[in-house]
Design goal:
alpha/beta, 9-stranded mixed sheet, 8-stranded parallel sheet, 12 helices, 17 strands, binds pyridoxal-5'-phosphate
């Protein structure tokens, strides 16, 4: 019996390293770019980079925003860091100073990056984004040729270097992803026709990188599988297991309900009622969740001092965050990224 008296998120450094290695081996020669948005999917940027410090082959990170990119840069001065969201002018300046690679998904953003690079005498390293159907960010196919022409002109003047062409897949169906891949291929042809020969092409995140080898580019943006988070509706991935495990203490036993010390203030949504958690006697359903605690159906011998595994590897088998998330129609990482600082983080080997 362990004596966790507050909810604890245990983070396994060796599991993180194994996951990254398993993904790398499976997707080679496409390289892993580890996605670190949302504070490394709730695992913490500092902890995650520390846990992977021995992995000499992992030299590429994706940050989403410039601030996160700067945090990565501070810890990994030599790594390649890709910040893909549209940023304001101040952030662009800081990104160029810190040698971040920028994702460019609109003509307007391209113009701002070019003007700041020119004004500061810094060359920008950019990845041009084609919208292949997600309509979130990215240049529409009908505008692509003109956009590429602007980028090519800036490259000829030495203001920037196009090091990548990229997009993001919906991963809703294979057919849609195939169509997106066709749009992507045409965009790449057009870029080459205009004299841009990017060293990088990237289209896929975890699921498509793993299951759709024909869609992989030179690099794959890997978030969920690195942290051991299964895709919604997806099977388990060989060699990939959850890095994070959330446990909470039993605070009281009242008839057929066991009171467990985790609830809304820790980031557990009340809509998780009905989901199963791991007890010393196996899976039991959550029957209620309030701000500071939840009730779980009792088990034989339930006692204060027991602990319950909300997700992750536990003494009684594994409950993954994705199974919880599926109950409330979200993705596994959202269960983890919602956890608040009231949950204690414990680093383990
Ligand atoms: C989050 C994100 C990824 C990583 O996705 P996973 O499914 O977690 O691997 C890759 N690319 C972009 C643009 C993202 O926003």
């Amino acid at each position: 019996m362990d004596d966790v008296m507050m909810p604890t998120l245990s983070l396994s450094a060796s599991q993180l390293a194994r996951n990254v290695a398993a993904v790398r081996e499976h997707i080679a020669p496409s390289a892993v770019m580890l996605a670190m948005k949302d504070d490394a999917y709730g695992h913490g940027i500092d902890w995650t980079l520390g846990a992977l410090a021995q992995d000499a082959a992992l030299v590429r990170f994706g940050s989403f925003d410039v601030d996160t990119g700067l945090r990565i840069r501070a810890i990994r001065p030599d790594a390649r860091v890709f910040a893909w969201t549209t940023s304001d002018d101040e952030e662009i300046g800081a990104a160029l100073d810190a040698r971040l690679e920028l994702g460019i998904g609109s003509s307007e953003y391209l113009r701002r990056v070019v003007s700041i690079a020119r004004a500061t005498g810094r060359s920008a390293a950019v990845h041009l984004k084609i919208d292949t159907g997600l309509h979130r960010n990215g240049v529409r196919p009908e505008d692509w040729a003109a956009f590429v022409a602007d980028a090519a002109a800036a490259q000829r003047k030495g203001i920037l270097t196009v090091i990548g062409v990229w997009s993001h897949l919906a991963e809703a169906s294979d057919a849609e992803d195939d169509e997106a891949a066709a749009v992507f291929a045409r965009a790449l042809d057009e870029a080459r026709r205009q004299g841009i020969t990017p060293e990088d092409t990237h289209l896929t995140a975890s699921a498509a990188s793993w299951w759709r080898p024909e869609l992989r580019g030179t690099v794959s943006r890997i978030g969920a599988f690195g942290y051991g988070i299964r895709s919604a509706d997806g099977p388990e991935i060989p060699g990939v297991r959850p890095v994070a495990s959330l446990r909470a203490p039993v605070l009281g036993v009242h008839g057929d309900a066991v009171e467990v010390g985790i609830g809304g203030v820790h980031g557990l949504p009340s809509t998780l009622v009905g989901a199963s958690v791991g007890t010393p006697q196996g899976a039991r359903p959550i029957t209620a969740i309030d701000d500071i605690r939840m009730s779980v159906a009792t088990w034989a011998g339930a006692a204060i001092g027991d602990s319950v595994t909300v997700f992750g590897p536990g003494d009684q088998g594994e409950f993954d965050a994705t199974a919880l998330a599926e109950r409330i129609d979200t993705v596994g990482e959202e269960i983890i990224t919602r956890l608040t600082p009231a949950v204690k983080r414990v680093a383990t080997r």
